[in-house]
Amino acid sequence: MANLFTRVLRAHQWLYEKSGGVVGHRLLFGNPTLLLRTVGRKTGVERTNALTYARDGKDYLVTASNGGSPRPPGWLANVKAKGDCEIQVGTTRIPVTARATYPEDPEYARRWALVDEVNKGRYTAYQKQTSRPIAVVVLSPR
């Protein structure tokens, strides 16, 4: 079942990218989805990930859940190494600065509630599956 879900996610991202954002923003479960473009910290190659997001004022929030895996997603290490990256929301590309936040951040709980609500409580379920604190990444337009 996990393999099927992974294939669906990849197809969604492919469609989002190939349509230039015309299709894909709200395709999967109706969740708002953005494309996060980072540069691989080791390879220097551009990487793209489709991620559910929430808004917090002018900022966009994404969650480094990796489906509750013990390991964070690779894109998290990329944004920690180089915070300047780009997102695409629908057809609009936006340069952003990424900053990972964790439970010790005073704004973390509020941000977590925003992203968890958009994702219908799935992030809370993922957090229960792993002992690592799941980062909420703040993407601030530059």
Describe this structure in words.
This protein has a single domain (1-141), classed as Pnp Oxidase, Chain A, CATH 2.30.110.10. The protein is built from 4 helices and 7 strands. The chain has helices at residues 2-18, 74-81, 108-118, 122-129, and strands at 33-39, 46-52, 54-56, 59-63, 84-89, 92-101, 136-141. Helices cover 31% and strands 31% of the residues. It holds the Pfam family F420H2_quin_red. One of its GO terms (cellular component) is plasma membrane. Its EC number is 1.-.-.-. Keywords: Oxidoreductase.
Topology:
Blueprint: H1 2-18, E1 33-39, E2 46-52, E3 54-56, E4 59-63, H2 74-81, E5 84-89, E6 92-101, H3 108-118, H4 122-129, E7 136-141
Antiparallel strand pairs: 1-2, 1-5, 3-4, 4-7, 5-6, 6-7
InterPro entries: F420H2_quin_Rdtase, Split_barrel_FMN-bd
Enzyme class: oxidoreductase
Protein name: Deazaflavin-dependent nitroreductase
Task: Kindly list the characteristics that best describe this protein.
alpha+beta; Pnp Oxidase, Chain A; 4 helices
Indicate the CATH class: Mainly Beta
CATH architecture: Roll
Radius of gyration: 14 Å
- State the order of secondary-structure elements, H for helix, E for strand: HEEEEHEEHHE
In order across it, which strands form the biggest sheet?
Answer: 2-1-5-6-7-4-3
Shape: globular
Mean pLDDT across residues: 92
Q: Remind me, CATH topology?
A: Pnp Oxidase, Chain A
Q: In percent, how helical is the residue content?
A: 25-40%
Major beta-sheet overview: 7 strands, antiparallel
- The DSSP helix count reads 4
Task: Kindly summarize this structure in a few lines.
The protein is of the alpha+beta class.
